[in-house]
TrEMBL record:
Keyword Oxidoreductase: no
Protein species of origin: Streptomyces sirii
Disordered: region residues: 1-23
SMART domains on file: HTH_ARAC
Alphabetically ordered keywords of this record: DNA-binding, Transcription, Transcription regulation
PROSITE patterns registered for this protein in UniProt: HTH_ARAC_FAMILY_2
Limits of the HTH araC/xylS-type domain: 194-291
Superkingdom field: Bacteria
Protein name: AraC family transcriptional regulator
Record field: compositional bias (Gly residues): 1-15
Length: 314
């Protein structure tokens, strides 16, 4: 069995000192490592927790280390057990929950589109935007490599973590990758959905009703519902909650408190932010902010050490 350092949860095992306790028997750590720019990391074990329909700006690649994960997509539900890999492209709406009574544990990488594009350009012959043509695969070898990225990051080994990340993503793209279709809205319904999304982003803190939004766009409420769900995989109100959480992540990363963030993104109060943020991200906003504060303190400390030890001298 591969184990991690005491900094987080052991790979596939019990939580470590930095993992955030969830419900009984659950833990999670969502963090970033300075040696891996353009990447978020999550390791967790969930039993009762379920992720509502949401999407990501970047890619999702996870290795299931125990139990079974069920992922709900527009085209149906897929399952991945120990040794299985789940791959989700940007802006693909999905849900996730336990597929077995014992829940599931996994190690997840969230590489940005820029990171994946760079790796694809260097290591594949894919044209256009590279992505995954499969959602799940039984691939224990690559699953172990994904967990080793986490292990190296937790040990502070930037060379190993970066190398393993690039090798793992390159293998995934070569085995399960292909060019993604262009997302340019072509039909009238898709263009309407795109305009609705822009309006909701602009008025996130005080959004219009569905009827008012439809009136502004010159359509009917049900036509807007159908067009929006067809374009983004979820109705406008669900998409708006997801978008608020995405913006909340950026604000928390910038140092805002959860209370300030809740008001700015349009949640009625901090408990509403806590509930939706935890359901979608997998950890509470306070824990999410603390992890990034820790990384900032590490960076600041390293910079001060560099300066006081003479690193700034010519």
């Amino acid at each position: 069995m591969v184990t991690g350092s005491g900094d987080g949860a052991a790979i596939g095992g019990a939580p470590g000192t930095n993992a955030t306790p969830q419900a009984r028997g659950e833990w999670a750590r969502h963090w970033r490592y300075d040696g891996l720019p353009g990447l978020d990391l999550l390791r967790a074990r969930y039993v009762r927790h379920s992720f509502p329909r949401h999407a990501h700006d970047g890619y999702v690649v996870c290795a299931v280390t125990s139990g079974v994960e069920e992922v709900g997509l527009q085209q149906g539900t897929v399952r991945a057990g120990h040794g299985g890999i789940v791959m989700i492209n940007p802006e693909v709406a999905h849900t996730a929950r336990a597929g077995a009574p014992e829940g599931w544990a996994y190690a997840t990488l969230y590489p940005s589109p820029e990171v994946v594009a760079e790796i694809a350009e260097e290591t594949t012959e894919l044209h256009g935007t590279a992505g995954f043509t499969r959602t799940t695969a039984e691939d224990p070898y690559l699953g172990r490599m994904i967990t080793e990225v986490h292990r190296a990051a937790e040990a502070g080994n930037a060379l190993a973590a970066d190398s393993l990340l690039r090798i793992a993503v390159a293998h995934l793209l070569r085995r399960y990758g292909g060019p993604l279709p262009a997302r340019t809205p072509r039909s009238a319904g898709a263009r309407t959905a795109n305009l609705a999304r822009a309006l909701l982003e602009e008025r996130m803190a005080d959004p219009p009703s569905l009827e008012r939004l439809a009136q502004e766009l010159g359509t009917s409420p049900f036509a807007l519902l159908r067009a929006f769900k067809g374009a983004y995989g979820m109705p406008p109100h669900t998409w708006l909650t997801d978008a608020r959480v995405r913006r909340a992540r950026r604000l928390l990363e910038a140092g805002r408190t959860p209370a300030e963030t809740a008001v700015e993104v349009g949640f009625s109060d901090q408990p509403h932010l806590n509930r939706h943020f935890t359901r979608i991200v997998g950890v509470p906003p306070g824990a999410y902010r603390r992890e990034r504060s820790v990384q900032e303190r590490v960076r600041s400390g390293a910079a001060r050490t560099y300066k006081t030890t003479g690193g700034a001298h010519s």
